[in-house]
Design a protein that fits this description.
This protein is mostly helical. The protein has one domain (about 5-50). The chain has three helices and no strands. It has helices spanning about 5-15, 20-30, 35-50. Bound molecules: zinc ion (ZN).
């Protein structure tokens, strides 16, 4: 998994409030804890702002 892919997956996990999934992706990738927290926050903000999720499960 590339760094960008990992960050995108963590962002989606943040969007869904799935901290467990975020931590699993974090553990499997080599991104920093700061980048991990940042990606989770970005996902949470997307949801707060009413933006559509970009993950496979949410796409129509
Ligand atoms: Zn989604």
């Amino acid at each position: 998994m590339t760094r960008i892919t990992a960050l995108n997956h963590i962002k989606v996990a943040g969007y869904h409030g799935d901290n467990r999934a975020a931590m699993r992706i974090y553990a499997e990738s080599r991104i920093s804890l700061a980048a991990n927290s940042n990606a989770i926050l970005q996902g949470k903000r997307m949801k707060e702002n009413g933006m559509a999720c970009t993950c496979m499960n949410c796409k129509p």
